[in-house]
Each structure stands twice: as C-alpha cells, then as structure tokens.
Amino acid sequence: MKRGEKSVTTVCPVARSSEVVGDKWTTLVLREMYMGATRYEEILIQTEATPQMLATRLKALEADGMVERH
Fold it and tell me: What ranges do the domains of the chain cover?
C-alpha cells in the first residue's frame, strides 16, 4: 500500500504500525534510533541508505508522529 492511500480501519496495532512503517528502510531507521543512534550521520552509516532515502524516511516518520526532531 502506498503512503497516503486510505485503508480499512483496524484496531490491530500491528496492522496499523505496518501501514506507517511499510518498508525495510524505515524499519532499519527505527531500529537504529531504538538502539540509541541520535545523529543523522550515525543512522546513515549504519543503515547504508542514501542521504535522500534516509531524509525521506525521517520526514515521513516525523509527519506520522513516530519521531520528533530535536
């Protein structure tokens, strides 16, 4: 499912989370953040993502309320 498309409303937290997370890159970004990475460069190195890919994922996570910029 593409971001922005409406889906069936569910009470299942796993299903709702998978709609927000959606792809492996976002999962890797969240993993690094939960492991303590707080700097863009740290996450970039550990995930081996491109700068554009990482920036896009972080902006989407921020828009969805999953992370907060400090």
Answer: 13-62
